[in-house]
Amino acid sequence: MAAPSVFYLHGGPALAPVFERARYPDADHVHWWHQPLAKPCAARPFLDLQEATVTEFRRVAAAAGQPLTVMASSFGAHLAVHLARQAPELVKEILLLAPTFNPEQAALRLARRAFRVHTGHEHAGKLATALAMYEDDPGRPRFWDVFGALSLLPDVTELYFGPAGADAARSFAELIHQPGAFDGPTSVATSDDFSALDHSPMPSPFAGPVSVLFGAYDPMIDAEQDRKVWEVIFPQAEFFKVDTGHFPLLELTLEACLSPA
């Protein structure tokens, strides 16, 4: 088996790459890295994840004997930025798929979209109340109240996908219940640690090619607003809008994502 040429950083945090592996079982040139779970009582789980990412990336690049393409989905974009700062010489190019610069705001956009879709649902009022309380008193406790209320609504995962992504949405809904597909405690711990850090955008030392794909039907991202942020980090970036929701890799082909131009 040939060494991988693409290093993949899945979203989440704490989603596993089971969705991508199921869609691309023969993509041996991609290292579908399953990010480690947060250790119990870890003081800084996001910083631990960053360190683990650099370690794994250096290992895979050394085995390949060449720089790698870094492909990152959603929250994984922050790990890609970290790699570009820590080991730019090992990065061939970067591909960001629906990168969420501010995961908290992205999740709140999803919640507002879910409320509009499910206004008549019996639990919609709980979500409306949680959103209003967050607006009055923003912060992580109120954010998790919104997230809890959101989970009471049906078929929320379908909202991630575009009009043509019914098959991808169905597969996602089935696989998310697979053991190991998602770890709630890791998601909470990593997200909270991430939110405690300063994420002011800073130019990256990586000067190679960068492509950013935004889904036209993504319920979590304001493409115009987020583009301005990513342009600060990667001034050389090229931006593309594709007919997907929040997971272009699950709705398009791998080749289309790797070569969006």
Q: What is the gist of this entry?
A:
With 261 residues, this protein is an alpha/beta fold.
Q: Could you characterize what this model shows?
A:
The chain has 261 residues and is α/β, with parallel strands linked by helices. It folds into two domains: 6-102 and 181-258, Alpha/Beta hydrolase fold, catalytic domain (Rossmann fold), CATH 3.40.50; 104-173, no CATH class. 45% of the residues lie in helices and 12% in strands. The chain has eleven helices and six strands. The chain has helices spanning 18-23, 45-64, 76-86, 103-117, 124-136, 140-150, 166-175, 184-195, 223-233, 248-251, 254-258; strands at 6-9, 30-33, 68-73, 91-97, 210-215, 238-242. Strands 2-1-3-4-5-6 form a six-stranded parallel beta sheet, covered by helices on one side. Strand 1 (6-9), helix 1 (18-23) and strand 2 (30-33) form a beta-alpha-beta unit. The longest helix is centred in the first third of the chain and has 20 residues, at 45-64. It is globular, with a radius of gyration of 18 Å. It starts with 5 loop residues before the first strand and ends with a helix. Residues 65-251 form the AB hydrolase-1 domain. It holds the Pfam family Abhydrolase_1. It comes from Duganella sacchari. This is Pimeloyl-ACP methyl ester carboxylesterase.
